[in-house]
Amino acid sequence: MSANAQVQAVEGHHDDDHGHHHKETFVTKYIFSIDHKMISKQYMITGIFMGVIGILMSLLFRLQLAWPDHKFTIFEVLLGKWGADGVMDPSVYLALVTIHGTIMVFFVLTAGLSGTFSNLLIPLQIGARDMASGFLNMVSFWLFFISSVIMLGSLFVEAGPASAGWTIYPPLSALPQAIPGSGTGMTLWLISMAIFIAASLLGSLNFIVTVLNLRTKGMSMTRLPLTVWSFFLTAIIGVVSFPVLFSAVLMLVMDRSFGTSFFLSDIYIAGEVLHHQGGSPVLFEHLFWFLGHPEVYIVILPAMGIVSEIMATNSRKPIFGYRAMVASLLTIAFLSTIVWGHHMFISGMNPFLGSVFTFTTLLIAIPSAVKSFNWITTLWRGKLQMNVALLWCIAFVSTFITGGLTGIIMGDSALDINIHDTYFIVAHFHLVMGISAAYGFLAGVYHWFPIMFEGRMMNKKLGYIHFWVTSIGAYGIFFPMHFVGLAGLPRRYYTNTNFPYFDDLADINVVMTIFAILTISVQVVFLYNFIHSMFYGKMGPKNPWNATTLEWTAERKHIHGNWDGPIPHVYRWPYDYSKLNKDETDFVIAGQDFIPQNVPLQDNEDELDH
C-alpha cells in the first residue's frame, strides 16, 4: 500500500471512530486521560511544579554562596537538621546541587518541554485525531509522575538525598557507605531515573509513530511545521541515547547491591580494602555522557522548533530557509551522538581522541549558526507583532548565541582543561541550555495558551513584566559567572572563604545572588498570570495570532478527536505569510496576509515555490 493510501486509510479509520467514544467521567477526563491535549496539560503542570522546587533549591544555595558566614532562618525551616541554627550543612549543599540539576535537566526541561508541546502539537499540527496510542501516552505520563514523586521523596530520607552531583559519578554513587548522600537517597535517585527513562521511551516511540503514520492527506514531510520536525527528531535522539543511561543505571545498581565491579576498582575506605577490582569509573562517564550530550539537544531542539514557528507567525514572513532549517535539525541530531567526549577531556583521554571530539564539537557549531542566522533573517524587515511570545523568542536567540559562543572555547580540549569544573562551565550550560530552553517553553506557553485552555488568553501586561525582569535578571546571574570562572573559581564548593585568592570575587557572588532573588521572585507574576488566566482569562478570537497551521482550525472546546467533522486536508507548506490574495475564494479573505495550510492552491500558484 502506498504512503498516501495508508494515510487515507488511517484518516478514514479515525473519522469512522470519531463520535463513538464513551462518555468520560472526571477520572477518565482529568486523571487517567488518553486525550493528548489533557496529557500535555498534565505534563506542563507537573513540570512547572517540579520547576518551582528546583528553582527554590537554587535560591537556597545561592544564599549560601553569597553570604557563607551568615545564619538564615530559612535554612533551619526548610532543611531541618541539615540547617541547624541557620547554618547549611556542607553535605546538604551538594545534595541541593544534585537534585536541582536532576530536576531541571530531566523533569522540567526534558519532560516538561517535550512532554507538553510534543503531546499538544504533534496530532493537531499533522491533522490527527490523537497519538498513535492514547493508552501508551497515558502510561508514559504516569510513569513520569511516579518518577517525580520518588525523586521528591528522596529529599526526606534520614541520611539525605543523593549527593554525587547530577552526573552521579562513581565511586560516590556506587558505594553506599561513601558519604551520607550515597545511601538510600542515591538508591531512590536510581529508581526514579529508571522509571523516568521508561516514560521517555514510551513517549518518544509514540511521537515517532504518530508523525510517520498519522499525517492527514497532503501533509508530506516537507509540509510539516518546524515544530513537528523538532519534536520528531528529539524523539529519535531519545530512543537512541536514553537506553544507554538505563544500562549505566542498571550496572550502577548492580555495583551497589550485588557485588559487581563495573565501575569500581582498588577502593579503600578508612584503610579497609573493598572487594572490587577490574572496573573503571571512566566507563560510567562514557555511558553517562553518551546520553548526557544528546540530552542537551533533547532539551534545546523542541525550543528551536517552537521559536521558529512563533517567529514566522509574528514576523508575518515565511521562515527564512525552511529546507536549511530542516537540514540543520537533521545535522544537529546526528552530530549530537558523536561529541560526548568533550565532557571528558581531563579524564586521561588519549590526545588524538581528544582532537577528534574537538573537531566534531566545533563542527556542530555550523548547523547551530545556520539556525541563528535564519532566525535573525526571519525577523529582518518583518512586520513584527511584538507580543510576549515573540519577545521570549528574541531572548532565546540572544542567550543561544551568547551561550553558544562560549561552547566553542569549551569544545577545544587545550582550552577546556583550564576552565573545567569552574563557574565558566556553569555559565555556559545555564545560558545555552537552561535559560534558552526555558525561554522556548515560556514562548510556547504564551503562544499556545488559547489552544490549551479553550480560547482564554494570558494577560499581556503581566507577561511584559515577567519577560523584562526575567531576561535582565538571567543575564545578571549568569553573565558574571564567565569572569569568575576564568579567574578559576571552582564549582560545587559551598564556600570559598578558605581561599584568600577568591576574596575579591565575593562581591560578584553577592551581585549574582541579588539578581537570582529578583528573577525568582518575578516568577510569581507568571504563576499568577498562568493560573488566573486558566479560569478567568479574556476570551480571544479562534486564531488570535493569524497563524497558518492546522491546530488553529480545531474545535475550541476540547473534544477527544480534535475536529468535530472531517479532518482538514493540507494543500501547502506551513509558512504562507505576506501573501495578499487577489482572488477571493470561499476560504480566504481578500487582503489578509496569510493563507492557512488547509486552503486549496489557486490555479495561478506554483506549488513548487516552496
From TrEMBL:
It is found in: Membrane. InterPro entries: Cyt_c_oxase-like_su1_dom (IPR023616), Cyt_c_oxase-like_su1_sf (IPR036927), Cyt_C_Oxase_1 (IPR000883), Cyt_c_Oxase_su1_BS (IPR023615). It is a multi-pass membrane protein. Keywords: Electron transport, Heme, Iron, Membrane, Metal-binding, Respiratory chain, Transmembrane, Transmembrane helix, Transport. PROSITE patterns: COX1 (PS50855), COX1_CUB (PS00077). The chain crosses the membrane at residues 43-61, 92-122, 134-157, 188-214, 226-254, 287-308, 320-340, 352-376, 388-411, 423-446, 467-488, 508-531. Residues 26-568 form the Cytochrome oxidase subunit I profile domain. Its main location: membrane. It comes from the Bacteria. One of its GO terms (biological process) is respiratory electron transport chain. SUPFAM superfamilies: Cytochrome c oxidase subunit I-like. GO terms for molecular function: cytochrome-c oxidase activity; heme binding. Pfam families: COX1. GO terms for cellular component: membrane. Belongs to the heme-copper respiratory oxidase family. This is Heme/copper-type cytochrome/quinol oxidase, subunit 1. It comes from Aequorivita sublithincola (strain DSM 14238 / LMG 21431 / ACAM 643 / 9-3).
